[in-house]
Structure of Vacuolar iron transporter:
Amino acid sequence: MASNLEPKTNGISANNFDIEIPIHANKESVENESNINYFQRAQWLRAAMLGANDGLITVASMMIGIGAIKEDISVMILTGFAGLVAGACSMGIGEFVSVYTQYDIEIAQMKREREANNNNNGVVDDESTEREKLPNPFQAALASALAFSVGAVMPLLAASFIKNHKMRMGVVGAVVSMALLVFGGVGALVGKTPVMRSCVRVLIGGWMAMAITFGFTKLIGTTGL
């Protein structure tokens, strides 16, 4: 006599083959994706993208500026290399000091809030968790310096093998423009911001920097100021 107390699973007897369908799998993956903290991601992204754009624009502007009055390729390359080294050091040290200052301010604020609450329950765990969310000065400095170097290398490589002065200037401008579009697009995709707006903003900013540097250098070089 079959018992009426046999457990049921989705209307199928336990004696049959039970198939469990994880209906929450897709939901959990969507929730995990939606819970990504893009603000924390922006901490290192900001330093990296700022360094890359700065290296690209600074060194390219220096090379185009010196190219406005000097046609010698060695002068242009030396100028760009000096800008790479000086800029990478400046970006790394500046980012380290800036982020470390922010780190000290947030640590001090955490201590003031803990003293004001006068509640020791879970203080150690809460403080260690909060410290993990703070920006890392060493990480930001290294990312900024390396990114600056990567950006600065591009115009140097573009100009190194072209002897014709006008062609060299044109190639540097074209390579820099393409790189600016790539940097703007990558930054937008990683940070989940509008791609077109980011690309146009970065490109126009780079063009303005190179044009201003070229114009002022040309003016000073031709007038002998």
